[in-house]
Design a protein that fits this description.
Radius of gyration: 24 Å
Structural class: alpha+beta
Shape: elongated
Number of strands: 5
Helix content: 10-25%
Low-confidence stretches: none
CATH topology of one domain: Rubrerythrin, domain 2
Mean pLDDT: 81
Order of helices and strands: EEEEEHH
Largest sheet: 3 strands, antiparallel
Distance between the termini: 69 Å
Strand order of the largest sheet: 3-4-5
Oligomer: single chain
CATH architecture of one domain: Single Sheet
Amino acid sequence: MINNARIVAKCPDCQSDISLPPKPELWMRITCPECGTQLEIVDDDPWELDYAEDFDEDELEQDFEDELEEQDFEEVFYDDEADEEDEDPPWQ
């Protein structure tokens, strides 16, 4: 028996019913065909849509660096050349 039931969720902006793709996944982006609002699937029991959040990668990285700085973390760089030295490890 084939289940041809449509998966439907409501647009939070215009309240229209939106048919979701056959295999919807959480955080999948959807555009409301009625009002054009960018949405994403935020729950699957029952299916729920919310406004999609746009983010700027540079802004996200800067926020992360600011948060590390506030917590007194310091940036550490790994020196590849230090590995190439011919020093015997201390356990030999």
